[in-house]
Amino acid sequence: MPVMSSEFNVVKEVNALKITQSQFFNQRSQVLESAINGYCNVADFSVVQNEIQQKWVETMQAWMPMQGVTKGPINDLDLAWSIQFWPDKKNITGRKIAQLLQSQQKSWDAQQISEQSVAVRGLGALELLIFEQQLNAENCLLTTAIAEHLAENSQKITDIWSDQYAPALLQQSKIEKQQKAIELGLVAELSHQLSFINKKFALPMGNEHYRPYQAEAWRSESSMLQLKMSYQSLQEYFLKAVKPLLLQENETYLASSIEDTFTTLLNNWPIEASLKKLLSDQPGLKNLYHSKMSMDKLSYQLQEELPIALNIIVGFNATDGD
To answer: Which Pfam families does this UniProt record tie to the protein (predicted)?
Structure first.
């Protein structure tokens, strides 16, 4: 029996991780859709909506590992913007939702939502409707249709990962000539996702003035909660997809150092879940800039030291700049 390459084993781990993450996102999306549908069918809008709001937060958290990906069904099907329209610097989501509600359309379904602007198809639109507006007689049909559309997209992602993308990547990893390309792809994905995550922190921090309304999930006041989940997901990806490559090259010190930076960043994460609140006073700002030190160190390690250690060149990140 031939000995499988280390890349083959790494790909098995990455496939398992991606499938698990996509299945969890799908499960949370389905639960959110069911909760919204049930609430709107009962139509007792005096009932507190905390449970639905929490289900949105959990669905958003389940989406975090898939942000900024360049490989797989999210990219191939061009679903990223439909699932999450961010950044939304001009509040396009708010304006488009207002237009749809003012149209007084009598019925909505997932197909009709798919024909609308990406700004109203996904998590950001649901956040506005659930947190800012609260579910009511005027917006329930629209909210239910958007949740249905989100659930359908999440199902597509998990189906294609399991049935198509994972088997193809595993087959590719068995071909010796493809193994360096796979290694490059794994590191490039890590770098690209890191750039996306860093932008989620940098954009609301601004250059000269703080911009709290540019933060992800500001309406639900869960920006820092979501950002922490992003770094936790990146840590998990590093451990399964990239650390084995470093150990293969005997780069044990760098591997350990990166792990320590992740640990420091996450262990010292601010307790406050709202980035907007942290930006509003000096203690909060102190916490944010303390976290930024670890973020900057992590970025240097993953985007500068790591490629050199593995003797690869990582290309331009599409998330760079605005």
So the answer is: Peptidase_M75 (PF09375)
- Looking at residue 6, its pLDDT comes to 73
Q: What is the largest CA-CA distance in the chain?
A: 67
Residue 212 DSSP label: G
**CA distances for 191 relative to 15, 82, 161, angstroms:** 18, 23, 21
144, 170, 179, 153: which is closest to 66 by C-alpha?
153
Position 232 scores a pLDDT of: 98
Q: Across residues 304-315, what is the average pLDDT?
A: 90
Residue 4 has pLDDT above 70, yes or no: no
- Could you tell me if 142 and 108 are in contact, meaning their C-beta atoms sit under 8 angstroms apart? yes
pLDDT at 304 over 80: yes
Question: Which two three-digit tokens encode residue 253?
Answer: 């010190």
Residues 133, 94 contacting (CB under 8 angstroms): no
- The closest of 177, 188, 253 to 14, measured between CA atoms, is 188
Q: Using an 8 Å Cβ cutoff, are 32 and 146 in contact?
A: no
- Give the Cβ contact number of residue 316 at 10 Å: 8
Please state the separation of Cα 295 from the chain's center in Å. Answer: 17
- Which pLDDT band holds residue 315 (cuts at 50, 70, 90)? low
Of 63, 77, 68, 75, the C-alpha closest to 127 is 63
What's the average model confidence in pLDDT over 64-74? 94
Query: b/e per residue, 237-258, with b = 16+ CB within 10 A?
Result: bbbbbbbbbbeeeebeebbeeb
In terms of Cα–Cα distance, which of 217, 234, 228 is closest to 303? Answer: 234
Q: Is the pTM of this model over 0.90?
A: yes
User: Mean pLDDT score of the chain, rounded to an integer?
Assistant: 93
